Amino acid sequence: MSGVSGFDGVLFFPVTPFDGAGRVDVDLLGEHVQDRLGYGPGGVFPACGTGEFHALSAAEVATVVRATVAAVGGRVPVIAGSGGPLGHAIQTAVSAQEAGADGLLLLPPYLVSGTTDGLVGWVEAITAATDLPVIVYHRATARYTPEAMTRLAGNPKVIGFKDGVGDIGLAQEIVLAARATGRELALFNGLLTAELSQGAYRGIGIPLYSSAVFAMLPEVASAYYRAYVGGDEQTRVRLLDGFYRPLVALRDETPGFGVSLVKAGLRARGVPVGPVRPPLVDPTPEQEHRLTDLLNTGLRLLTHHDEHPAPAASSVAAAPDSAAVPAAG
């Protein structure tokens, strides 16, 4: 299935940088992706939630995916965002295949929701348009039931399920239903700041998770992942308590900050990725100040416990009146 054979490492969801005129900054996107490859992601997911799929035209999605595929150069799987209105979903799926992507993450249909038959039919219409394998994303208007996943597991192009709802009981039922088919689907935790909930998801048989933090602070995200897979509970809990928990508190202050804070964090580290597009909003200066302090706290948690993630930061970019945050990207 086009190079998708497991995801060994943090799942990287890059932002979509915009230049001063509001256009996709292809060169900066390539640099952003290439820099993060040094931290060993298990896959790259361009033009998805963190990449502001909701705010991109079909042509822009194609541009983002092409640039990401070129930057990755076949080193890890590239899973492109697709979804929304059926016509838009098919158009972005076809352009992703033409760009050389290895698979698709199907974001929910636009606005409307239907029956299980309707949702399964929507997925099958998209899978019929290309040869690419797909991961379905359970959230918003795409509410997959155990019955739906049993049926979709019969489609060899459906290779994974990502949960963005957070109903652990339902997620457990879906895991069991998928296992009963004999298929080994890739199962993901797709909740915002998934590190905070991944302990629970691992307990029900969902071992993979997406990390928006990896885009802005790969040192901390990689350290958490190593602790997670290595059973280092002391490090895992230290990072959860000292970094991820306060990050979630800041994120929850404003709707949409799951994306906005990542872009702000990159800007604080000297990477000019531009603002988010409406209807999302950027943090206030006071919130950006607190975010910068929090990024520094995360890095200090590593330094004070002899963590030395690679590659090392090469320069320093400091926000006003805050501690220095090593630049990334």
UniProtKB/TrEMBL annotation:
<feature type="active site" description="Proton donor/acceptor">
    <location>
        <position position="137"/>
    </location>
</feature>
<feature type="active site" description="Schiff-base intermediate with substrate">
    <location>
        <position position="162"/>
    </location>
</feature>
<keyword id="KW-0456">Lyase</keyword>
<dbReference type="GO" id="GO:0042838">
    <property type="term" value="P:D-glucarate catabolic process"/>
</dbReference>
<dbReference type="InterPro" id="IPR002220">
    <property type="entry name" value="DapA-like"/>
</dbReference>
<dbReference type="InterPro" id="IPR013785">
    <property type="entry name" value="Aldolase_TIM"/>
</dbReference>
<feature type="binding site">
    <location>
        <position position="50"/>
    </location>
    <ligand>
        <name>pyruvate</name>
    </ligand>
</feature>
<comment type="pathway">
    <text>Carbohydrate acid metabolism; D-glucarate degradation; 2,5-dioxopentanoate from D-glucarate: step 2/2.</text>
</comment>
<dbReference type="InterPro" id="IPR017655">
    <property type="entry name" value="Dehydro-deoxyglucarate_dehyd"/>
</dbReference>
<comment type="similarity">
    <text>Belongs to the DapA family.</text>
</comment>
<feature type="compositionally biased region" description="Low complexity">
    <location>
        <begin position="310"/>
        <end position="329"/>
    </location>
</feature>
<feature type="region of interest" description="Disordered">
    <location>
        <begin position="309"/>
        <end position="329"/>
    </location>
</feature>
<protein>
    <recommendedName>
        <fullName>Probable 5-dehydro-4-deoxyglucarate dehydratase</fullName>
        <ecNumber>4.2.1.41</ecNumber>
    </recommendedName>
</protein>
<dbReference type="GO" id="GO:0047448">
    <property type="term" value="F:5-dehydro-4-deoxyglucarate dehydratase activity"/>
</dbReference>
<dbReference type="Pfam" id="PF00701">
    <property type="entry name" value="DHDPS"/>
</dbReference>
<dbReference type="GO" id="GO:0008840">
    <property type="term" value="F:4-hydroxy-tetrahydrodipicolinate synthase activity"/>
</dbReference>
